[in-house]
Amino acid sequence: MGARLRLSHIGICVSDWRRSLRFYAEGLGFRPVGELAVQGAHAGTLLRLRDVSLRALYLERDGVRIELLHYESPGHEGDGSPRAMNRLGLTHLSLRVDDLDALLGPLEACGGRILRDTRIEPQPGTRVIFATDPDGTLVELLEQPGE
What per-residue string of b and e applies to 16-49 under the rule 16 or more CB within 10 Å gives b? Predict the structure, then answer.
Protein backbone atom coordinates (compact mmCIF):
# COMPACT_ATOMS: atom_id res chain seq x y z
CA MET A 1 0.00 0.00 0.00
CA GLY A 2 1.29 3.48 -0.87
CA ALA A 3 1.80 6.54 1.29
CA ARG A 4 -1.27 8.16 2.84
CA LEU A 5 -2.12 11.56 1.35
CA ARG A 6 -4.31 14.35 2.69
CA LEU A 7 -4.99 17.76 1.18
CA SER A 8 -2.98 20.41 3.00
CA HIS A 9 -3.93 23.62 1.19
CA ILE A 10 -4.36 25.38 -2.15
CA GLY A 11 -1.98 28.31 -2.75
CA ILE A 12 -3.13 31.52 -4.44
CA CYS A 13 -0.65 34.29 -5.28
CA VAL A 14 -2.11 37.75 -4.53
CA SER A 15 -0.95 41.29 -5.25
CA ASP A 16 -2.51 42.90 -2.15
CA TRP A 17 -2.96 40.60 0.84
CA ARG A 18 -5.39 42.91 2.67
CA ARG A 19 -7.71 43.19 -0.32
CA SER A 20 -7.59 39.43 -0.95
CA LEU A 21 -8.15 38.63 2.72
CA ARG A 22 -11.29 40.77 2.62
CA PHE A 23 -12.54 39.00 -0.52
CA TYR A 24 -11.99 35.47 0.77
CA ALA A 25 -13.00 36.13 4.40
CA GLU A 26 -15.88 38.62 4.10
CA GLY A 27 -16.98 37.73 0.59
CA LEU A 28 -16.68 33.93 0.64
CA GLY A 29 -16.72 33.12 4.34
CA PHE A 30 -13.24 31.66 4.77
CA ARG A 31 -11.88 32.23 8.27
CA PRO A 32 -8.27 33.13 9.00
CA VAL A 33 -6.43 30.29 10.77
CA GLY A 34 -2.77 31.29 10.58
CA GLU A 35 -0.04 33.41 9.11
CA LEU A 36 3.57 32.80 8.22
CA ALA A 37 6.45 35.07 7.19
CA VAL A 38 9.03 33.41 4.93
CA GLN A 39 12.36 34.76 3.73
CA GLY A 40 15.93 33.77 3.17
CA ALA A 41 17.93 31.43 1.00
CA HIS A 42 16.06 28.26 2.02
CA ALA A 43 12.76 29.83 0.92
CA GLY A 44 14.29 30.92 -2.38
CA THR A 45 15.56 27.41 -3.04
CA LEU A 46 12.18 25.83 -2.29
CA LEU A 47 10.15 28.39 -4.24
CA ARG A 48 12.69 28.75 -7.06
CA LEU A 49 12.80 32.54 -6.60
CA ARG A 50 15.51 35.00 -5.61
CA ASP A 51 15.43 37.36 -2.63
CA VAL A 52 12.17 35.95 -1.24
CA SER A 53 10.18 37.88 1.32
CA LEU A 54 6.73 36.32 1.53
CA ARG A 55 3.66 36.67 3.73
CA ALA A 56 1.40 33.59 3.72
CA LEU A 57 -2.12 33.83 5.14
CA TYR A 58 -4.05 30.63 5.79
CA LEU A 59 -7.85 30.60 5.59
CA GLU A 60 -10.26 27.72 5.98
CA ARG A 61 -13.83 26.88 5.11
CA ASP A 62 -15.66 23.54 5.12
CA GLY A 63 -12.42 21.68 5.75
CA VAL A 64 -10.63 23.29 2.78
CA ARG A 65 -7.62 25.47 3.48
CA ILE A 66 -6.31 28.11 1.10
CA GLU A 67 -3.03 29.96 1.38
CA LEU A 68 -2.84 33.55 0.17
CA LEU A 69 0.75 34.21 -0.92
CA HIS A 70 1.90 37.82 -1.02
CA TYR A 71 5.45 38.29 -2.31
CA GLU A 72 6.87 41.51 -0.92
CA SER A 73 9.99 40.47 -2.83
CA PRO A 74 10.46 39.66 -5.70
CA GLY A 75 6.86 40.82 -6.25
CA HIS A 76 4.20 39.09 -8.34
CA GLU A 77 3.84 38.36 -12.06
CA GLY A 78 0.74 38.65 -14.21
CA ASP A 79 -1.81 41.31 -14.98
CA GLY A 80 -4.82 39.92 -13.11
CA SER A 81 -6.59 38.59 -16.19
CA PRO A 82 -8.55 35.36 -15.61
CA ARG A 83 -6.74 32.23 -16.82
CA ALA A 84 -8.11 30.41 -19.82
CA MET A 85 -9.92 27.25 -18.69
CA ASN A 86 -7.85 25.14 -21.09
CA ARG A 87 -4.52 26.42 -19.77
CA LEU A 88 -2.55 23.66 -18.09
CA GLY A 89 -2.53 23.67 -14.29
CA LEU A 90 -5.10 24.67 -11.73
CA THR A 91 -7.96 26.51 -13.37
CA HIS A 92 -10.41 27.62 -10.67
CA LEU A 93 -11.99 27.19 -7.26
CA SER A 94 -15.57 25.89 -7.21
CA LEU A 95 -17.97 26.67 -4.37
CA ARG A 96 -21.58 25.67 -3.80
CA VAL A 97 -23.89 28.48 -2.75
CA ASP A 98 -27.50 28.37 -1.57
CA ASP A 99 -28.45 31.85 -2.89
CA LEU A 100 -26.37 32.98 -5.85
CA ASP A 101 -28.12 36.32 -6.26
CA ALA A 102 -27.52 37.25 -2.60
CA LEU A 103 -23.79 36.59 -2.94
CA LEU A 104 -22.97 38.56 -6.08
CA GLY A 105 -23.30 42.09 -4.65
CA PRO A 106 -21.19 41.38 -1.55
CA LEU A 107 -18.49 39.73 -3.67
CA GLU A 108 -18.23 42.81 -5.86
CA ALA A 109 -18.12 45.01 -2.75
CA CYS A 110 -15.14 42.94 -1.55
CA GLY A 111 -13.15 43.52 -4.74
CA GLY A 112 -14.39 40.60 -6.84
CA ARG A 113 -15.63 40.77 -10.40
CA ILE A 114 -18.71 38.89 -11.62
CA LEU A 115 -18.32 37.52 -15.14
CA ARG A 116 -21.96 37.97 -16.04
CA ASP A 117 -21.51 36.50 -19.52
CA THR A 118 -20.76 33.12 -17.90
CA ARG A 119 -24.17 32.72 -16.22
CA ILE A 120 -25.77 29.44 -17.32
CA GLU A 121 -28.52 27.09 -16.20
CA PRO A 122 -27.26 23.62 -17.19
CA GLN A 123 -30.43 21.98 -15.83
CA PRO A 124 -33.66 23.24 -14.27
CA GLY A 125 -32.98 24.87 -10.91
CA THR A 126 -29.20 24.73 -11.23
CA ARG A 127 -27.35 27.98 -11.87
CA VAL A 128 -23.63 28.54 -12.42
CA ILE A 129 -21.61 31.71 -12.82
CA PHE A 130 -17.92 32.59 -12.66
CA ALA A 131 -16.47 35.41 -10.63
CA THR A 132 -12.86 36.41 -10.06
CA ASP A 133 -11.01 37.39 -6.94
CA PRO A 134 -9.32 40.82 -7.01
CA ASP A 135 -6.35 39.33 -8.88
CA GLY A 136 -8.28 37.41 -11.54
CA THR A 137 -8.38 33.92 -9.95
CA LEU A 138 -11.53 32.24 -11.26
CA VAL A 139 -14.17 31.22 -8.71
CA GLU A 140 -17.07 29.10 -9.93
CA LEU A 141 -20.28 29.63 -7.97
CA LEU A 142 -22.78 26.77 -8.22
CA GLU A 143 -26.36 26.95 -6.94
CA GLN A 144 -28.32 23.68 -6.91
CA PRO A 145 -31.70 23.09 -5.32
CA GLY A 146 -31.63 20.95 -2.20
CA GLU A 147 -27.88 21.28 -1.66
Answer: ebeebbbbbbebbebeeeeeeebeeeeebeeeee
Total-model pTM: 0.89
Q: How far apart are the first and last CA of the chain?
A: 35
Each residue of 85-141: pLDDT tens digit?
889 789 999 999 999 999 999 999 999 999 988 888 888 889 999 999 999 999 999
Burial label, 83 (beta-carbon count in 10 A; 0-12, 13-18, 19+): middle
Domains and CATH numbers, the chain: 10-73 (3.10.180.10), 93-143 (3.10.180.10)
Do 121 and 100 meet the contact criterion of CB atoms below 8 Å apart?
no
